[in-house]
């Protein structure tokens, strides 16, 4: 018989905590009453054993290398779906009918323009500002422009804010790039699909018609699908935590962007390509593998390892295939891809990486593709943020609608001084 409670004994006290089961995945021990019953907190820095919420959006089995959105495997979505369809799925729970998809697509398309005043906001940044710094600032500033969609208790306003964020992110991201290269901002065009529109706003110029190979549009759309959501990762948890206080959605997504920027998270794609360039030639790979294994060297193989995946990241599989498609379409051949392939092979056959179950993650190959399309490395994490906005808003909506939702307020293990009396400065 399956146990329905977990018995935890602390000294002479024994408490029974309910065990909750999801549809799939590990059970969780419900410790919400634990402090009240025992006077003790649980301790889990980095949340390695803690479920922070209930969610119906995304499921990961890290040991098997499985990633499902609303039950659908990421490989199938990447192969057959579109980013707009995945966005609809994550937001609404089911795949759309043809009619629903057209309506959703039209709604997003009609929200892609940003308030004209926002353009002047960009001019306050230095031209060499990192586009992630610009993205953080501009997305946070959206709450000052769209007052009519900041009431989080109104489901209609929440939906408008969600659509606005998904729709305006490509425009804002493209403007960050344009600003950094000193070219004029390109307005969105409603007759183009989401990803095609973004590419045109990024690389198009007023002087000529923008042409792009459909294979490139499809590849980037697929990259967006691969980044759309990833359950309770650091930036998503940041969005949820910020949102738990009742903060407006634009502020919450800006908080998520700030968290994503770190090199252990979304910043790894930029760091991974920089690393491949630094390695430069296959002959130098052993030196870098040795450094990654050296405890006294802080260097890590970027794009390798994952908190949850202890197997091949299923997104990396699709990425590797996409590199080949983009190279064929653009007729390019970046030697960094060969370095990446050989580095992967060598690491996967090395005892250190085998023992620690370190496999390539989504960021290992994405940089090679994005670079071939023409994005500078500083834009890589911006693209991640653009796509992850879908997951962030879906998770944020789910949290606000959850009756069990409370302000996030972790406790701590205090190891500072105990109470002591203030000593006036002349007596110290
Ligand atoms: N290269 C070398 N050693 C590694 C690496 C790596 N990339 N990743 C983990 N290790 C080692 C680490 O030194 C540790 O060894 P030990 O047990 O001897 O101290 C062990 O593996 C476990 O690592 P950890 O840091 O305790 O594991 P974590 O779950 O806290 O970290 C991670 C996960 C993704 C932050 C880490 O693997 C890492 O820093 N990878 C490189 C950065 C990267 O590619 N990040 C992208 C993640 S996927 C996209 C995203 O989430 O945004």
UniProtKB/TrEMBL annotation:
It holds the Pfam family Citrate_synt. One of its GO terms (cellular component) is cytoplasm. It catalyses: oxaloacetate + acetyl-CoA + H2O = citrate + CoA + H(+). Pathway: Carbohydrate metabolism; tricarboxylic acid cycle; isocitrate from oxaloacetate: step 1/2. The keyword Transmembrane helix applies. GO terms for biological process: tricarboxylic acid cycle. Keywords: Membrane, Transferase, Transmembrane, Transmembrane helix, Tricarboxylic acid cycle. InterPro entries: Citrate_synth-like_lrg_a-sub, Citrate_synth-like_sm_a-sub, Citrate_synthase, Citrate_synthase_AS, Citrate_synthase_bac-typ, Citrate_synthase_sf, Citrate_synthase_typ-I. It comes from the Bacteria. This is Citrate synthase. One of its GO terms (molecular function) is citrate synthase activity. CDD domains: EcCS_like. Belongs to the citrate synthase family. The chain crosses the membrane at residues 364-387. The active site is at 306, 363.
